[in-house]
Design brief:
CATH superfamily of the largest domain: P-loop containing nucleotide triphosphate hydrolases
Structural class: alpha/beta
CATH architecture of the largest domain: 3-Layer(aba) Sandwich
CATH class of the largest domain: Alpha Beta
Number of helices: 8
Distance between the termini: 18 Å
Largest sheet: 7 strands, mixed
Number of strands: 13
Order of helices and strands: EEEEHEEEEHEHHHEHEHEEH
CATH topology of the largest domain: Rossmann fold
Strand content: 25-35%
Length: 270
Amino acid sequence: MRAAPELETAGSAAIVLAGVDKWFKTQDEPVHALAPINLSVASGELVVLLGPSGCGKTTILRIVGGLIQPSKGEVRVLGRELWVNGGRKSEAASGLGIVFQDANLFPWLSVEQNIMLPLELKGTPRAERHDRARELIKLVGIAGFEKRWPRELSGGMRQRAAIARALSYDPEVLLMDEPFGALDAMTRDQMNLELQRIWMETGKTILLVTHSINEAVFLADRVVLLSPRPGRIDTVAEVGFERPRSLDVQSAPEFQRIVTTLRHRLVEIS
């Protein structure tokens, strides 16, 4: 556990935020959502953003995802600047995949068709789309449900399909905003195990937002704790447990120490 750095650097950084600041205009007065954020996520690293509601976790994710423009600062994805002269650079954004809390599957498309859709929009040949969809369906563990409609799937299975769709064009960086927040506790535990497996098999860089301290510590290489608005990096917790991690690691004294330290710090800054 250590205090927030001025700017973390990594020669193989997949994501770099340097002096990223964000204000939102409202009818009453401007809202300062993020104070200057300096953060680097190494290629292949799994970093979790944690903090109280309204601290700017999702705002950071949407800025990195090219959905919200920062008020100040620089964002680099895979070595390319994402925001230039007020616009998003498609070359940088092309290396990103995004998974939201709501799976957002199109109800009129089958699971397989949902997964293939990004490839179809990119003009990928039909046979290649089918091959990629079958590969991903197996990877996320929903083989046998290819022709089902989203309404016929459980919440966990819909999220598996959403992860497969985000991986369809093989992005190097996966951004995940509370992907399991709407699931029951047992399904959420299972999805955490599945996400760890998928991450280990694919080697993707993952930046994930959660409100769950246990989930953060279980999944992360590093947990980045944000202060209340305007969000600042308050603390960075290194999590050094070996992979793959089983759910039993949550009963380990060191796991509980990290969880307790983060919980106490959340109370102190809230």
